[in-house]
Amino acid sequence: MLSKVLSVAACGLGLSACSAAVSLPVSNPEEYMYTLGGTRNLGGQENSAGNVMPDVQMPWGFATWSPDNQADSGGGWFFYSESTHLAGIRCTHQPSPWIGDYAFFNVMMHVVNPQHDGKTGQYANYDPRQSTFSPYHFNATLSPYGTASGISTIEVTSTTHGGLMRFKFPPPDAALLAGSYNATRRVYISVRTTGGNAVSLAGDGSSGSPLLFTGISTDNLPQNGKLYFAASLFGGGGATPTQPISMGQGQDGDNLWAWADFDPTDVNAENLVLRVATSLISPAQALAAHANEVAGVDFDTAMASNKAAWNSIATKMVINDVGAGRTDEETSDMLTIFYSSLYRASKFPRSLWEVDYSNGNAPIHWSPYTGKILPGPLSSDVGFWDAFRTTFSLLSLVQPAHLAEEMEGFLNTWRENGFVPQWPHPNGGGMAGTMSDVTFSEAVMKLPHCGSARADAAGYCVNASALYDASLENALTRQLDYYIYGYIPYEAGGTMVSDTLLNYHADWAVAQAAEALGYTSVAATLLARANNYTLLLDPSRGFMVPRLRNGSFISDWDEFAWGPGPGYTEAGPWQYRVEVPYNPQGLQSAFTKIGLDGCAIVQQANTMLPTFHAGGYGGVIHEQAEMAANCFGQWELNNQPVWAMEHMQVGFDTSVSGKCAQQAQYWLRKSATLFKAESQMYPGDEDNGSMGAWYIFNALGIYPISPASATFILGSPLFGSVDIDVGASKPFSIRAVNQAPNNVYITGATWNNVAINGVYVNYADIMQGGVLEFTMSATPTAEGADHMPPIYEGR
Description:
By secondary structure, this protein is α+β, with helices and mostly antiparallel strands.
């Protein structure tokens, strides 16, 4: 039976489940969180449709569970939406296939017949179209393990630090048993060990006490880090098995494994439940988590709790109306993409901390930086280069208390590591710039500071001075050349244009925090550095171009060349041409001085051919191919560097009904066509909720063009009416009067019935609740009536 979630997404998959009318607002929006969306991944440098996994977990959960097609593979791409193989349910901590997994193991069931004999590494056939994919439940039928009476099923649901799996075998088939078919049933756990690490198992589960896996060292755990987990298997018949079952144990090549076999005529083994709890701290902690989270818990009860957690996330944003002229199928698709994107934006950063059950349930964590067990939270598994643009800003709107907790988790990273990694996860990593500075400064600018009256009223706070110190430390330790020349010169190599522009943005953000905290002289210094973006603007070319130490721009330059060497990260000159999101008006003035216009530049980028040259990459990378196949001209919406490009057009203007703003409104609304309610949900890598959050902001008609500004710039809303719970006495409501599919232009905007003077709304105002109202039209205003040239869509 298809789940509600699959039924919704089936519209995009060409199945037959979309005939029912959609009544808004929907009562259970979490059912529109389709975890298969974004999973049609080809891996490596092939095109992606999200490069994500169909994970079952709690919001920001410690433990994640995903179907695995690859039989205990250590590689990052272990699930493909089109594969009909199932090698098990993986307990995973993978934040991205580009980063890889750590602390993982597999759980699987099979029937030990001659075709599927053996220990680990086996797989079964399943049909993704007949499976349940939701944040709180995965359920699959395993075709090879059936009889004339039925087919085996495997299910998983999650708790914060563990999960429950349910295995159902069909009744025995007398005719098969009378022959030579070996129908022995098996459930097993397989752990891929590395480097000859010593691993031990304690107990067998027969007394009801968990089987304890201890000392497991897997890929990407530094500081001699180890995974510990406690598992208990129960059978005995009935809907809630209570009879403990012992498990054998052994080694199979590189895999440690534990298993339980059952006679096919044993009715007590037709319904089995495995309860698992995990820890990075100790065996005792794994046992404590088992006792507190999963012991004695019924599968359906755990699943209801998991579902309720996602309901609390989804109901923060209530879509009341999608506007006139939408079919039920279109409405269903819009809900699926929106709430699936909210699911993606509510998974990372991972809350990589555990619970001290003997100390009032205080947070405690294993530190991948020191190897010690320390008090407090720890945030992990997110790339700031990706997430600073959208993910954290979305949390500031709908989950500010959780964002404050995450900030403390990152401060612990800073305290323990000495600096903030720009791709914090247990094995480190980074990207261009120090974009944690923007996120930390955004938190300083938006959230209550500890010790303030506002914090007392809100019930949460951030350590503003520590966030500022961590960011200022980055600002003072960047490349020496950056301070000498005001930019990173070409001789430094790499992605110097991207790095310099990102550093300017970070400097501007830290300056906002410095000013707010009273450090006015520091703020002035950082602002002066941030305004150096004109140093990279080549007046003869009109692009941001690498510059030599002697002050001249490089002569050997190609406007379509991407990558390091030419100076750009995952993009090229066209994509970074207007990347000054903290000062659109200043950039427009700089363009004017050299005879150019920012609006015309962006419009040209949107409508020209999607030409690219390999440049420093030496070959085609997936971001290039995706831009050419999915997007519009040079607007590389499939990747982060251009996410602010259309909003820069709005920022070049002074009114939502101006020519520049209405150019942007056209393209922002058109961008919604690149997102699909199917496995190919996204036009490129989704990256830790960042593209999902981009879609949500675009659908709302607001965008955090420069997060530390504590403002949102206005776009073109996709829905007719949305209510957002911002924790105030009334919601933040967005209304689009005269909303319809072709009504993309804004003729006016008001905040609480007062006309908006400009193109921004303030975060502080929004968080008090109120009504942002747009008036929509199918035709641009007189100011912008002549602005739309012929369109090349690249498809």
